[in-house]
């Protein structure tokens, strides 16, 4: 256990960590800044997207328990804590340890905060470990933070010279440099096409292979720009290629699919799931997941009688996607592609009882020894159902 200025770190790891170290930081004393070695650390400015819309979609209430699965600079987390006061609790998760440090500074004035450096693909394991179930709302903000884009070492941006890294966590093994410099041309083209939706993926891949070795972000950006005939319009020609590499390096789409399923299991009665996506691949996964979970039967249309046994677990809050206003886009151009979708957890009384009993007897809870031990809360939940 280490401590700097009242901020504690617990280096114990989850049993199911996905090549990610897990750190816990509990804020016990309000502070206004994080200082190390006698120097004040100022985090880069990050403007959260669709803040008011997110708080409304989560239906944040005083005393509620909420999870921010992509903590970033802590902007959404701060808004949630402010709205859920008094008594609100927040579990913040981020695969990027630098994001955790920045959020610690921004959220230092709040109590009842648990920050975990891990990937949200381990969402259930994290919640069981830190006794954070059930919850009133879960947020995924899938965009890159301003801190990540402005870093000179991370390689997320094609506007600054940096190594081709693109890992959310340095504990991960695969880097963008390995993909760019070792993947066969056909596999590289497939990656750019599948994860970047780039129609000129074959030409770009050919030019990259011809230019190997490619060592920096600026080198790669120039190669892509020359391959497609220069810049046309507002969007840089390397945008889709960089997106494709980042998605593959961090397994973003696969992790998102797994995390969404876990999120539903952690939501309490009428709990809210809110997801902000920034490109069509993410939004498609979120949209299809919510639509599927909002239906009782998911059998193919040609099936005469339902055989799937599926029951709806969500109710769609906004049937039309929510996007930023013109004024927000003007103030924060990075918000222009954001899309917010929200859904509410629905369940029968029997389903709720089963979930509570499953949590109480789960191997994860027994193993970690600090799990579901809330008889008073359980009694309150049952009383609420009896009153309906």
Question: What characteristics describe this protein?
Answer:
Rossmann fold; DNA polymerase, domain 1; 15% strand; 388 residues; globular; disordered N terminus; ten-stranded mixed beta sheet
Explain the overall architecture.
This protein is of the alpha/beta class. It has 2 domains: 2-146 and 267-347, Rossmann fold; 151-250, Putative methyltransferase TM0872, insert domain (DNA polymerase, domain 1), CATH 1.10.150.170. It is built from 16 helices and 12 strands. The protein has helices at 51-58, 75-84, 97-106, 123-129, 146-150, 176-182, 185-196, 201-211, 217-227, 239-250, 252-266, 280-293, 326-331, 349-361, 363-368, 375-387; strands at residues 2-4, 7-10, 24-27, 35-36, 39-40, 65-68, 89-94, 113-117, 135-141, 267-277, 314-316, 339-345. It has a 10-stranded mixed beta sheet with strand order 1-2-3-8-7-6-9-10-12-11, with helices on both faces. Helix 7 (185-196) crosses helix 8 (201-211), helix 8 packs across helix 9 and helix 11 packs parallel to helix 12.
Task: Set down the secondary structure blueprint.
Layout: E1 2-4, E2 7-10, E3 24-27, E4 35-36, E5 39-40, H1 51-58, E6 65-68, H2 75-84, E7 89-94, H3 97-106, E8 113-117, H4 123-129, E9 135-141, H5 146-150, H6 176-182, H7 185-196, H8 201-211, H9 217-227, H10 239-250, H11 252-266, E10 267-277, H12 280-293, E11 314-316, H13 326-331, E12 339-345, H14 349-361, H15 363-368, H16 375-387
Helix pairs in contact: 7-8, 7-10, 8-9, 11-12
